[in-house]
Amino acid sequence: DIQMTQSPSSLSASVGDRVTITCRASQSISTYLNWYQQKPGKAPKLLIYDTSTLKSGVPSRFSGSGSGTDFTLTISSLQLEDFATYSCQQSFSSRTFGQGTKVEVK
Amino acid sequence: QVQLQESGPGLVKPSETLSLTCTVSGGSVSDGSSYWSWIRQPPGKGLEWIGYISNSGRTNSNPSVESRLTMSVDTSKNHFSLRLTSVTAADTAMYYCARLIVPADCDVFDIWGQGTMVTVSS
To answer: Which of B45, B72, B110, B115 lies deepest, with the highest CB count within 10 Å?
Structure first.
C-alpha cells in the first residue's frame, strides 16, 4: 500500500498569508496526486488534480506542484473562506489519502 | 449538475451488516465514464477509500474491507449501494458516496454526497 503523509498536521495563519502544505508518498506516484478541501461538517471538495491542474472555478491563489514522492499545495494569499482541512490523495496504485492538514486562524 | 445523496441506518449493531444507498440526481449511473464510489472518514481521522462500481457492475475495492464488501448498481432506480458485513466499532465513520472520473492521467473524486454518519454500537 502507498502511504501518504502530510505536514504539518495543522497550522495557524492569518488572512493574506502564504500557506504551504506538503504531502509525501511512501513510493513514487509520478504526478497522480489530487488535493481536496473540507470544511467542518461538509464533504470534501476537489481543488486540484494531476498535481497541478485546478478544477474549474477554483481560485488561482491555489496551486500545486511536485512529482515522484514530494508534493506541495500552496495558497498564495489566504482568504477567510480558505480556513479548512486539506487532504492529498494518490491514484497511482489504488487510492489513499493523507491524514489531512487543518488550516486555522492565528 | 450531478448530485449524490446517501441514505441508510445511522446505527448498526456489531457483527451485523451495514447497508447504504447513494441516489444519483442530475445524471445517470449508466454513465460509462463514471465510477461510483464509497469513501469513509472515522471521527477525527482521515479519509479511506472503500471501493467503486461501474455501470456494468465491475468493482474494485480496498483490500482492507474487500472480504466483507458487496457493491451493486441499480440503473432502474439510478442508485448504487454498499453492504459491509460483520461490522465492528472500527467501521464507525461518516460514509460518503462520490463519483470517480478520469479527467487526465489520474482519476479523481469530483462530486461527493453530503455524507451519512454510521455508528456501530449495541
So the answer is: B115
Q: Mind listing the pLDDT tens digit for each residue in A65-94?
A: 999 999 999 999 999 999 999 999 999 999
Q: In chain B, what residues touch A52 (CB-CB under 8 Å)?
A: none
Contact residues for B100 (Cβ-Cβ < 8 A; gap 6+): B34, B35, B36, B37, B52, B107, B108, B109, B110
Kindly state the DSSP code that residue A26 receives in the 8-state scheme. S
The 10s digit of each residue's pLDDT in A32-47 is 999 999 999 999 999 9
Grid cell 451493486 is found at B72
Residue B67's nearest CA partner among B42, B85, B54 is B85
CB of B29 closer than 8 Å to CB of B75: yes
The string of pLDDT tens digits covering residues B22-48 is 999 999 999 989 999 999 999 999 999
Instruction: Verify whether the Cβ–Cβ distance B49 to A94 is below 8 Å.
Output: yes
Computed from CA positions of residues A94, B62, B109, A41, in that sequence, does the dihedral angle turn out positive or negative?
A: negative
| Residue contact B105–A32, C-beta within 8 A | yes
Give residue A95's region: left, alpha or beta (phi > 0; psi -120 to 50).
beta
Amino acid present at A99: Q
Residue B83 has pLDDT above 90, yes or no: yes
